[in-house]
Amino acid sequence: MTTSGTADEPMALAAERLRAAGMRVTAPRMAVLTAVSDSGGHLDAETLRERAQRVTGRLSLQATYNVLRALTDAGLVRSTQIAGHPTRYETERHDNHHHFVCRACGSIRDVECVVGAAPCMEPRLPEEYDTQEAAVTFWGLCPGCRAATPVP
Amino acid sequence: MTTSGTADEPMALAAERLRAAGMRVTAPRMAVLTAVSDSGGHLDAETLRERAQRVTGRLSLQATYNVLRALTDAGLVRSTQIAGHPTRYETERHDNHHHFVCRACGSIRDVECVVGAAPCMEPRLPEEYDTQEAAVTFWGLCPGCRAATPVP
DNA sequence: CCAGACACTTGACCGATTCAAGAAAAGGCG
DNA sequence: CGCCTTTTCTTGAATCGGTCAAGTGTCTGG
Fold first, then answer.
1. Coiled-coil ranges per the record (chains A, B) (predicted)?
2. The predicted structure's pLDDT at residue A134
């Protein structure tokens, strides 16, 4: 069987994580956090709302945004903005990884970065600049779209 | 006197560049292209419209978007999208440089990249991925805002 | 179990950008 | 040089992602 059974396990886990972060535990929060975790990342607010709704029965888009904001502020979720796409959300892994975006289908794939020694973290800027973070987006074609694209 | 005189020189230059790109030469296009060039980059559509208007006398925002699209497609202008900001435009220099964005004041500064050997251009991805471009955005505090910010 | 704080719903609103239809103007050609 | 076609500009409406605000509902600490 694919549905239910131990389907509330992730919910309990989500509750755990919310509590650990000092947040109130509510159905929408558990549902959204679970949706973000399960998906493997890179879903937008609307999609997350749809998924969360399957559990909560009903969830306003506004609430979804509220929850995502709260989860992001709490460090449980990381948001990423890709040019031309709505904001995407993924589980915060504290590994400062980057993203590859397919120009054809829009799919997103994580790209690991050598932790702590990310070469791209060293901009050629004067000393006075306080560089806190580097966000790298790789653009190109994913294997599927590359194969489907007639090479000129 | 501050106005006119040789003020139409950049216009002629813009006309030149448009023609070279095989585009029709129009007042809006010359004005916008000049505005992008003069500014040193990183202005949004609305600001560019204002500047261009000083020359053309009147220019719709829609036309500004049309022109910017055309210029971008023609490779004369490069557009950059920074999370939380409207799209910015700058003269295309074909040097694949990156951007530093101040979290406090939103100012943008170019960051040079070692041409041809950009370390950030080597994502750790399987062979089948066709990586065409890497966009790097550095986030932090510019000298001015850094000085103004009380260090905790 | 109750109060107060915090979260959710609904609905209006906003900024950035695009779509659509008609008027204007660029430029090739006779 | 002036016409005609094509492209571009103007105006106005619409879309999209997201936020603001007010009221109702629901956690959780005491």
1. none
2. 86
Contact B120 A124 (CB under 8 A): no
Domain count, chain A: 2
Contact A129 B146 (CB under 8 A): yes
Residues with Cβ within 8 Å of residue B150, at least 6 apart in sequence: none
User: Is the torsion defined by CA of A93, A95, A96, A98 positive or negative?
Assistant: negative
Q: D30 C1' – A75 CA distance, angstroms? A: 29
pLDDT digits (tens, 9 = 90+) for B17-36: 999 999 999 999 999 999 99
- B49 & B75 share domain: yes
Q: In what order do the strands lie in the sheet with A108-111?
A: A108-111, A98-102, A130-141, B130-141, B98-102, B108-111
| Claim to verify: residue A60 and residue A117 sit in the same structural domain | no
What CATH number does residue A37 fall under?
1.10.10.10
In a domain, A118, yes or no: yes
Residue B76 and residue A103: Cα distance in Å, rounded? 21
Q: Are B110 and B66 found together in one domain? A: no
For residue B145, what are its two tokens?
Answer: 């805002």
If contacts are CB pairs under 8 Å, which of residues 59-118 in chain B contact chain A?
A: 81, 83-84, 98, 100, 103, 109, 111-113
Q: What are the tens digits of pLDDT across the range A28-74?
A: 999 999 999 998 889 999 999 999 999 999 999 999 999 999 999 99
The residue in chain B having the minimum alpha-carbon distance to the alpha carbon of residue A99 is: B123
CATH classification at residue A115: 3.30.1490.190
Q: Does B133 touch chain A (CB under 8 A)?
A: yes
